[in-house]
Amino acid sequence: MQPVTDPEILAGYLTDASNVQGRADGLFRPTSAEEVAAIVREAQSTRTPLLVTAGQTSTTAGAVPMGGWVLSTENLSTVHTIGRDTATADAGVLLGAFQDAIEATGRFYPPDPTSRYDCALGASIATNASGARSFRYGPTRPWVESVQVVLANGDLTEVDRGTPIPAGWPVPRWHEPHVKTAAGYYPADNLLDLLIGSEGTLGILTRATVRLTDLPAAVHGIVAFFPTRASALAFVRTARAAQRADCNGPLSPRCLEYLDRNCLELAGSRVGTVPDGAAAALFCEQEIHGDEDEHLQAWMDALEAHGALADDTLLTTDDAGRAELHAFRHAIPAGINEIVVRNGMPKVGTDLSVPDDALEAMFDLYEQAPVRYALFGHVGDNHLHLNLLPRTAAELETCKAYYDRLAARAVELGGSVSAEHGIGKLKRAHLRTLVGDDVIAQFRRLKQHVDPGWILARGNLVEPTL
Ligand SMILES: Cc1cc2nc3c(=O)[nH]c(=O)nc-3n(C[C@H](O)[C@H](O)[C@H](O)COP(=O)(O)OP(=O)(O)OC[C@H]3O[C@@H](n4cnc5c(N)ncnc54)[C@H](O)[C@@H]3O)c2cc1C
User: Phi/psi zone of residue 450: left (φ > 0), alpha (ψ -120 to 50 degrees), beta?
Assistant: First the structure.
């Protein structure tokens, strides 16, 4: 196989959602796992760096090549089987389309990164992606049954949780923080768990089998407005405790998403449904298990008890209504993007998570942001995305320094520097802050052992040794 070298075609593979610009000498778009294996062997024998990419929605430059070849999974795009308990598809299948096909059979694959209609199944496993529903269902990891992978030496192999880590691999031994996290090599006791979240550095996933569960019979969507941040967070604590006590109980949200005052301004100017006096809102979903009225009553009681602007609560019980609520929520990224374009400066977006008892402390810091900002995200998991919106190059530097301080503080509080977006090439310093020099050295030893030429995904997760 010869790589594509036409600069016009290559140009489409040199960046991702981080907007970092990379460079590459060639592009492969294999159609089979055997071709992937041959390309990996060729890259190893010619010592050519090889970066696997998919939807290029990485926000951390994980999908940006820094020389060498790019291997796109776009032509590994077959859905093989959808059964009752598992479904199998090639790595390049778009996650959202795969999920729609599964749901058409009455089954459900829960991981839901917001980018799911633009990102690929294999990449979502390679980054251990999460999303709003991870509050109930966890990240991608527990939903992966097995993968087919081309390892760094070119071996094509099937891996499940019974597959041992090959003898001699120096597996990092460290303790992940007890929060939602997608940062660093997983301290795994089997090869599958080590590959999940390894960001293309240990192997190229070519196919995956995922676990399925019951598709909920119905899902209610709720947007509740609150007069203060404190009242919204008090409701979060109550709803979270109820969900943890009984995950199918009357009050058992599958997601709890926070929208701050600045987000409400952005959404209000577009969709016009924000009541006066609202300082914060929660976007929530409730799966219906049993009596629908019992769920509704539990929600109304809890919202009233926490001083929500109950008369203004938006509640929908069908798919059409839920789509309207999603439109409300999605008006916020659209509004942010408009400001970014107007400012002519990239936004700086955080991805930090902390333990329950540190949430307010992080809120206090977020709200002292040095520039205009919008704060939203997965508050049920204590994981918010602060979007800093600088207007000048100097403000951009201030924002990056502020992010560094926030990351350090999140670590001090027992949190993670990346809850779901991964480390890529942009957050290696934050990873070091999280794990320390000794664990970074362990990560590097693993990479060095598995891929001595640092051929695969060079620069992701850890600095290359060259
Ligand atoms: C608007 C937006 C919203 C997002 N929302 C979320 C969210 O809610 N939750 C979340 O977790 N993430 C989110 N992300 C981040 C990103 O979408 C996810 O990490 C996603 O899983 C990446 O998929 P992709 O197909 O775009 O992969 P790419 O960006 O192309 O690649 C991502 C990484 O995976 C590696 N990789 C790709 N394919 C393979 C493979 N077959 N084998 C091994 N490694 C591979 C690449 O080398 C790279 O390191 C968001 C991004 C954007 C832009």
Answer: alpha
